[in-house]
Write a structure and sequence with these properties.
Blueprint: H1 3-21, H2 26-33, H3 37-50, H4 69-81, H5 96-107, H6 113-122, H7 139-148, H8 150-153
Helix pairs in contact: 1-2, 1-3, 2-3, 5-6
Length: 190
């Protein structure tokens, strides 16, 4: 959740506390504040047990960052250097898996791939998906082959004048010749 979202949520809970103080029931609070009835009942329970302070935000949820601010600065500098500076020479792409590995190598802290993704976003980076290409690929040779060889190798399509199109459907028994296969199958049984 963004900081603005957390502030809005906190503001709504404080409004709920004011409404509870005035004796307004949780379902009416939910309607007025446009929140679910479940949230309003949970807030009402918290408010009854601990007052307005119980509805105050305790900060962002989730686990705290395992890297210090100084380590985060170092990580950002490492990311700026590029993957090749840290052993990934096949392409210049930071994947989340690579960043998780880099964090483990440099800071001896284990991060999951999804955790590394969130950390990268926090630092202003986005993980990239590498293109599946051979490192030794020669683009010039590929384009020459496409122009010179592909036209010779490619099979020609079917000529348009040799085809026809028509609607298909089951023929009526009356329209079949008497000696056609299956002609007798349409005759009524006695």
């Amino acid at each position: 959740m963004t900081a603005a979202g957390r502030q809005r949520r906190e503001s709504v809970r404080m409004q709920a506390a004011e409404l509870f103080e005035r004796g307004i029931k949780p379902l009416e609070v939910a309607r007025r504040l446009r929140v679910s009835g479940k949230s309003a009942y949970q807030w009402h329970q918290l408010w009854r047990d601990g007052g307005e302070q119980a509805l105050a935000s305790r900060g962002p949820g989730g686990s705290r960052c395992r890297l210090s601010p100084r380590c985060l600065e170092k990580l950002a500098a490492y990311l700026e250097q590029g993957p090749a500076a840290h052993g990934w020479v096949e392409d210049q792409v930071w994947t989340a898996a690579r960043v998780a590995t880099l964090i483990g190598r440099k800071f001896h802290v284990s991060y999951s791939v999804s955790g590394a993704t969130r950390l990268m976003h926090r630092l202003g980076f986005s993980p990239q998906v590498p293109a599946r290409r051979v490192a030794e690929r020669d683009e010039r040779a590929v384009s020459v082959w496409k122009e010179a060889t592909w036209a010779e190798v490619k099979e020609p399509g079917r000529p348009a004048e040799g085809t026809s199109a028509s609607r298909t459907g089951q023929a009526s028994p009356a329209g079949r010749p008497k000696d056609a296969p299956g002609a007798g199958a349409a005759a009524p049984r006695s």
